[in-house]
Amino acid sequence: DTEVTQTPKHLVMGMTNKKSLKCEQHMGHRAMYWYKQKAKKPPELMFVYSYEKLSINESVPSRFSPECPNSSLLNLHLHALQPEDSALYLCASSQDQLGYTEAFFGQGTRLTVV
Amino acid sequence: AQTVTQSQPEMSVQEAETVTLSCTYDTSESDYYLFWYKQPPSRQMILVIRQEAYKQQNATENRFSVNFQKAAKSFSLKISDSQLGDAAMYFCAYRVTGNQFYFGTGTSLTVIP
Question: Given a cut of 60, is residue A99 above it in pLDDT?
Answer without folding.
Answer: no
